[in-house]
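Holo prediction. Input below; ligand is NAP.
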Amino acid sequence: MSGMLRLAIIGAGFMARRRARAFVATGRAHIVGIAARRLSSAKTIGAELGCPHCFDDYRRLLDCKPDAVLIEVPHLVQDELVLWALGQGLPTLIGGPLSVSVQGGEKILGAARHAGVLLECGFEARYKAVWETAKELLHAGRIGQPIAVQSIALWNGKSESWYYDQAASGGMPLTHMSYAFINPLRWIFGEPLRVSAFANRIKQTAADYVREETCVANLLFPQQVMCSMLAGYVKSGSGDAWGLTIVGTEGTMELQPTEMENGSLRIACGEKAETFEFSQAQDAFIAQAHAFIDSAWTNAHCRNGPEDCLRDLQVAIAISVSAREGRSIELFQDFRPFS
Ligand SMILES: NC(=O)c1ccc[n+]([C@@H]2O[C@H](COP(=O)([O-])OP(=O)(O)OC[C@H]3O[C@@H](n4cnc5c(N)ncnc54)[C@H](OP(=O)(O)O)[C@@H]3O)[C@@H](O)[C@H]2O)c1
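Structure of the complex:
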């Protein structure tokens, strides 16, 4: 297969728009159909994207003869849609994490293997120039041997949105910490060995809301690299609360990856400092769309395949378990996730 990718989209919200535009911007994809829970939502985004084939039943997307599917929905309803797409033999891009549970993720991994088609999760950080550059510089030893990472990722969550709903989202660590910044840190430092976390719930306390509203998680990576992550849905004021500092034996790296923009990076070694700007770099969502299209035609892997993103899911759920049970967890050894 080659040529223009016929892409069908399930979901019609913020990220469906963001990624649909990224696919169109590649010049290598057509949006051939859109399905959402409500037909009116699908039609609204359909009108914006010039796609007249809109449905409130995702199965109708097959009428559009898609080559691939993009799924951008609340996490709780995602598994059914992913399993359906894989069952149709369609390469699938999931906008968020692999699943809401480890068991669900394992089932999806099995279905992807059985179908033998591409499955990619939507962590665009690994396609972002700022993270690619950080990885290259760290592996080149530009700040010596990495010792520790400190990160902050606070987002002003809206309590009425599904993100704040524990069941619909799978919780804050899964929804938020997996991409800010478990997924790119695993890409750089390898599989974390141990996790120890604390969490609280202070701003929104109703029973259905996320149990870990704000969380501090400590991860121990190989080579004794220690990582302390602060993340959550409480962010008041306009101050910057999104970035990382990586400390090495010879210097310090400061990353401002930003949520939707290209970000920047600064290295300081002794008296010398160097700043990297990425304003001219390709948008990460477009880069990921290109990689997805390439892989869809060749059945190759992308950077966020299901085996890899099952690890993101396991780490995020281990953070929740650690915070709830007040214990450290040896990852992938004594860890028995709850469903
Ligand atoms: N990579 C990133 O930077 C990033 C950032 C934010 C979010 N995300 C991820 O993006 C994904 C989508 O989030 P979002 O912010 O776009 O959500 P959103 O704006 O709330 O949109 C969700 C969409 O899902 C549709 N939907 C709900 N249930 C459905 C069902 N059963 N069948 C079909 N459609 C259904 C809704 O349809 P109606 O409109 O009809 O209700 C809505 O259009 C999530 O996985 C999230 O984690 C990624």
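The first strand starts at residue 5 and ends at 10. That is the main takeaway for now.
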